[in-house]
Amino acid sequence: MSYIAPVKDMLFAIEHLARIEQIARLPGLADAGLGTARAVLQECARFSQGVLSALNAEGDKHPARWQDGQVSTSPGFKSAWRQYAAGGWQGLQHPAEFGGQGLPKTIGAACIEMSNGANLSFALCPLLTDAAIEALLIAGSDDLKTCYLEKLVSGQWTGTMNLTEPQAGSDLALVRTRAEPQADGSYKLFGTKIFITYGEHDMAENIVHLVLARVPGAPEGVKGLSLFVCPKFLVRQDGSLGARNDVHCVSIEHKLGIKASPTAVLQFGAGPGVAGDSTGPGAVSHLVGQENRGLEYMFIMMNAARYAVGMQGIAISERAYQKAVQYARERVQSRPVDGSGNASIAIIGHPDVQRMLMTMRAGIEGCRALATVAAAAFDTAQHHPDAQIRQHNRACYEFMVPLVKGYCTETSLELTCLALQVHGGMGFIEETGAAQYYRDARILTIYEGTTAIQANDLVGRKTARDGGRTARDIAAQIESTEAELLASGTPAARSMARRLTAARQALLDVVDFVVAGSQTQPRAVFAGSYSYLMLAGHVLTGWQLARSLLVAQELLRSGQEPAFMRAKISTAQFHAEHILVKAAGLRDSVVEGADSVTGLAPEDF
Amino acid sequence: MSYIAPVKDMLFAIEHLARIEQIARLPGLADAGLGTARAVLQECARFSQGVLSALNAEGDKHPARWQDGQVSTSPGFKSAWRQYAAGGWQGLQHPAEFGGQGLPKTIGAACIEMSNGANLSFALCPLLTDAAIEALLIAGSDDLKTCYLEKLVSGQWTGTMNLTEPQAGSDLALVRTRAEPQADGSYKLFGTKIFITYGEHDMAENIVHLVLARVPGAPEGVKGLSLFVCPKFLVRQDGSLGARNDVHCVSIEHKLGIKASPTAVLQFGAGPGVAGDSTGPGAVSHLVGQENRGLEYMFIMMNAARYAVGMQGIAISERAYQKAVQYARERVQSRPVDGSGNASIAIIGHPDVQRMLMTMRAGIEGCRALATVAAAAFDTAQHHPDAQIRQHNRACYEFMVPLVKGYCTETSLELTCLALQVHGGMGFIEETGAAQYYRDARILTIYEGTTAIQANDLVGRKTARDGGRTARDIAAQIESTEAELLASGTPAARSMARRLTAARQALLDVVDFVVAGSQTQPRAVFAGSYSYLMLAGHVLTGWQLARSLLVAQELLRSGQEPAFMRAKISTAQFHAEHILVKAAGLRDSVVEGADSVTGLAPEDF
Predict the structure, then answer these.
(1) Distance CA A97, CA A92 (A)
(2) What residues of A are annotated to the active site?
(3) Which of A3, A197, A308, B409 has the most other CB atoms within 10 Å of its CB?
């Protein structure tokens, strides 16, 4: 079925929660107001619905294929990429200096959701290209920027991130790929990288690999990683393409989902078609930034990629939700449970189907609101003239990144599972399409850092490091929202306030536990890291839906879009009564349940 | 990887929770003591591990194939079926009168778990054959029993259940298949049935279809359904096979999982190879029991099938758990979080991996314990000389069936998902195998009645109908266990008692809500049916692990299997602190959150 971009809900979040008009007052973002947002989103919706969506099921049926080192992408992908590039979509958030449009993340994030909602496999290529651009912007020399950025921003070339090796997944300390310095200042790379998304394909004329490797004598562990740029085809001084570089795709993976997205094993410095090690001339590459600072650059660009993967979770959930709603409207089965009729009705009228659809709505709208607000914090952190405000927003954004990545993708597993369930037996049949969303979503809690890695990040760098200050700042903001809810006084607002208060207090208990124990009992704290992440996700998405509820009540009074506003209020209330209510249990798990997580010795499993 | 049947844990549940020695004192079950259980389980483990397990991944890679109305099963399945039949496994729980072994369900259930743990796709064939046998035992005439039972029990023939039609899934009132009475007392069937597991295959010489259809003039709805037996090949008076019957497989489905199990579309009375309607001679069949009582018979056999699908959930979770543990032991990645070493360690040492593995253990052991105790209730209800005790056990068993089916399969979705997560990126690669368990499990919450159907059954027939008496009886038993825990006084027992008490009280609140509202506000009650089912599942599995904890403490004192007993205690404690703690939130959802489930009009989704 076709995908309809949820432009109205996106604009609601952009206008009322992220407050785009405040973003548009920041230096350099004067054109980025609500009008721009609306125009860009409508155009992106048109493109995503018209071009990308139709290729989604096709790509699943006809995955990317490898032969003799070449990868052919799924039918229609080459043409779609040309149109994507021609439309300027790759450059949306990148600087005008390199041909981009310099739009804020608050607008760009919605576009990322749309392209992923239309076609997750396709949208991974721009996602990784964004990351490569980011790395070069952060740390590339002027020469490297001149050489690569314009062509990446225009979509003429695409980019990749090369971190993982067979023995080094979450643990980058184990990376072995070698970088040998050459007399001309370049390096030659030797090693094997795996799980490289769009590491080889036929959609663009060149592929620009960003690669973590070690120079001779580098320190052990992550402090000895350097970042290199290594193109598939070498680039001549005049910008034209030169010789084929010694980086070759020796296979692609046979995966559970995102089958149209080629996941490559890349050999650096092993010659063409050779699966062994170190027998080729070496892959010519250039250092990005300084030696041994690779992890630092990688982290900055990984934050952008992690945020984008979180958007993928929202996107696939939205698409699965739309499909489930459509099926639930069409499928006629069983009489009403209250005996109000003798004929079978569309299943959307049955309470348990409504429970599943409402769970999806609350999850999706809560996550979308959280991600949009996080994007606004990023934009403010980038552009605000006041350093203190920049710093505050930076901290808030960084606190939210592991939630956007970890929580929104964990949620997408649950929601795509529910969407399949709504279809009953038909959901299990591949031709229906619900199963593809379920399969595609399954990678999201794994790549760009598993949920465990996000949870560790939340515990360590985002909570313990500042003694819980950012977490408590956010809790204080939530408390103000609770006061507004109580002041509003409607039954929905009061119910939300009650649940939100309890959930916030549960969160604060956990923050105290994390801060107090991160040094003295780290195993106990990390035993609760996942539950802390889920709890924080519930609370922060509930908070954003609480804000939405207040806005919707206000707009309802002025008669705007009554059906939309009433649905927003219902969805917020559902979140309070069915998602926020999980907070106390999670609090108990973290604060009182650590010992039973780590009580069993490895040999006793 | 190979599957190891969890015989030790099964015997623990059979001996100490189901108390097999009491079962063996019932009339007719004298041979069914612990010694028999041990011998049967060991033999079944040998067969499942040796024959069935190795075919599991092969079957996924080489699914059943349809050509010209014939279905070829996956490599090795024919031979495995011959061995299964020769071993007498199909007859395990069936009467000696028809060649079975007449063993109690308390033993048979463990065998069902093992064959499904080894190979879910394969084990579906015996599961459906059991159901067909059950239907004939319940309602078949002596002629039908003579004709079919011995050959089904021996595994010479296999059986199917034909309920679903394109327009009639959960809603059997919509079944349209016609049964036309013939002069000789037989009937001819005309119609289309879909989703028929092992509806066509090449493993046995005949297939015996049990089919729901309508006789002329039958009442509308479910009260007009009759049950028929319709063989693939007609059976002559002497028991030999006669002409091919007019029931044909026009296609099999392309599914997300259980790919080796052929899911057939069957045409009755449409001639060979014809996809139209009513153009063949009609499928010769015989009425089972009386006209218009088909649903009643179907329900009895469906209870057996639902229980068995619950065992499938436990089985696939166990297999996925074993694979995750193996990977977690082998995969070396990252240093200990507590800084206790500088080298990377096996990930089984990381707290969040332990959290995932413990979640799996607690879910699996809790569900296995619940299902084993339910089986003992079934056996007691069948065999106890005292009618009141029979009746009490019947009610307990029937209360637990929707939990075994609904809760254990919902849990299997979560646990196979976690098992994949433990593998990180490798989990997403099909060759690893974790993805197959994730895909296979996904049907379990759908077939033989979706989770919504189970939840409605729990609310309506199992709770509201007896005014909550059975639910409160069970709660009273749980309360005694709490008293024993408090009397024991160990920290683990006290922690468990505290969580169990709170969870039981939450459950009782929900039972009160269900009983009070089922007539006056059915939509509100059914809005909470899923959460009630999950809450009851948490409480009843937690209860069984609480009993396990008490037993394990006792056995530990006498020095028996200390590592196993300590692990049992840890697992129970984990359940208390990480699963039972969800009870209060679910209670609030049901009792205080109904309006927000059903608040949105169908057109506003």
Answers:
(1) 12
(2) 448
(3) B409
